[in-house]
Amino acid sequence: xxxxxxxxxxxxxxxxxxxxxxxxxxxxxxxxxxxxxxxxxxxxxxxxxxxxxxxxxxxxxxxxxxxxxxxxxxxxxxxxxxxxxxxxxxxxxxxxxxxxxxxxxxxxxxxxxxxxxxxxxxxxxxxxxxxxxxxxxxxxxxxxxxxxxxxxxxxxxxxxxxxxxxxxxxxxxxxxxxxxxxxxxxxxxxxxxxxxxxxxxxxxx
Length: 205
Prior knowledge:
Distance between the termini: 11 Å
Helix content: 40-55%
Strand order of the largest sheet: 2-5-1-6-7
Largest sheet: 5 strands, parallel
Shape: globular
Low-confidence stretches: none
Strand content: 15-25%
Mean pLDDT: 89
Number of helices: 7
């Protein structure tokens, strides 16, 4: 199993990079593990308090479960990936069945922040983008997909997203083997990344 970690700030273009990388590889060879699926279940927290949860802090994630699932995939075992609702801030009863694949991609803002996972990764990628670009993307996504108001998005950005990015996400850049500037817009960098991944897989086979 070739394990790839793809990290970067919220709205940096990680999903675009993952999509283009996946599309370039043979169908059925890639399993994608979104870090967002591993947020801790907050169903025990009163509804009115859930909006105060800091989703941009490493403590928001269920790292032991993710590590357990990566270990299972490496051993050739399928996993039941959890699903998470941003609207209720709870883990849903439904799971996603994921079979072991030759390439496994862990994608999320803090994919390079957990040392135990970091040490298992064969390739570490950081997707970079200007802060104002990321804010615009977050604004579009959270208003349309997550039902938040523009005012709420800006308040969250100022209160938690920006400071957490500087404290936890930006420092992880130093662990990256490859940095993709300009996010998903950087075709040259993405093409070089695809070529490199294909070469690594070919050498392993």
